[in-house]
Amino acid sequence: MIDLRIQAQGFPLTHAISAWTESSIEAALEPFTAEIVAVDAYLKDMHGPRGSQDKTALLRVLMKSLPPVIVDLSGDDLYLAINRSARRVAKAVDRALSRQEKLLRQRPHNPEINVYPIQAA
Question: Which of 26, 53, 57, 114 could cross-link with 85 by S-S, CB 3.0 to 4.6 Å?
Fold first, then answer.
């Protein structure tokens, strides 16, 4: 279970939107739950009922050992924007974890080498 916080701006956050957001994000990030601390979802309708491509889904994934991963997508359908954001953030998390794993494999295996030296004050 992912710690998910959802905020809506410009429209009421209905149970249907909340449930869709939760299921989309949890399905997309399920393989990475061990590395994820929390996910923030910011949903916004820029122009209210006037229409246009103004529905935005910004997802911020906070992870244990890496900087946050952020994806921001807009569209004319909020449900589609949420779904696409969830898929893209999953790809971005996968890339970030793969890069970290690659760097750790390349690091020297000598425990006496301090990779992050502490500077004296």
Answer: 57
Dump pLDDT digits (tens) for 36-46.
999 999 999 87
pTM of structure: 0.80
3-state secondary structure of 91: helix
Q: Which domains does the chain have, with CATH numbers?
A: 4-106 (3.30.160.100)
CB–CB of 55/39 below 8 Å?
Answer: no
Q: How far is CA 70 from the centre of its chain?
A: 5
